[in-house]
Please model this.
Amino acid sequence: MKISGSYTIDAPQEEVWAALNDMEVLARIVPGCERLEQTGENEFEGTVKIGIQAIKGTYKGRIRLEDIQPPHHYKLVASGRSANGVVDGAGTVDLSEEDGKTVLTYSGDAQIGGMLASVGQRLIEGASKQMINQSVKALIEQIAQRTNGAEPKLAAEAPAASVAIAEAAAPAPAAAPEGAPRPSVPLAETAQPSFEHRTVVVPTDEQLKPEAVALGVVQDIIKERPWLPWVVIAFLLGVLLGRRRRW
Model:
């Protein structure tokens, strides 16, 4: 199964890239994401509960990012498991800037096994595109929130100017005499992990629910076909009028 598409986001490329690399944001734009954990450098695990169409179920998956080229490209390799089947795939995300806006382009290829393989490619592709569409909408909302509200700084962070002043004011360490043995450095100080182990648990009221995805699909259909509601109304009126004539 192959999927691809593009969206134009009214935000600078740097802001979109920063949002896509923020675990708090990612956990809130994936439909049904309950938990997201960083288990290694550019490696993540998560639990996603999906409640739409043929891919309904609870999935536990792993994601690894490769070929990272800030702020415009990365490749992701993913695998997911549920009672319904198995999904393994890889894809790319590319960002480009046009007139102050960001064009997000994605493409991917997935292999499906288990019960999911018997459902039908068109149904799965349709459900996948629905989820991606709503994820991008949620991403736009998250970027707007980050832009309008100031993000709190971590207590460990300090302005660069303050750090420079503190370093200049600190006394220089005394030079060791020639021939003296160098002090040993504890192993714990030298072998620092290359990533920060983090876990994001999304509260129930902040998860992107299947209902929101379904509502978004209806809104998209109406936006693409503004005449459709009038056709439905006319059909219903025709049914009601037909019943009256029978009476």
About this structure: Helices lie at 13-20, 23-29, 121-148, 160-169, 187-190, 210-224, 228-246. The two ends are 52 Å apart (CA to CA). The chain has a mean pLDDT of 75. The beta strands are 2-9, 33-40, 43-50, 57-69, 73-81, 85-98, 101-114, 198-201.
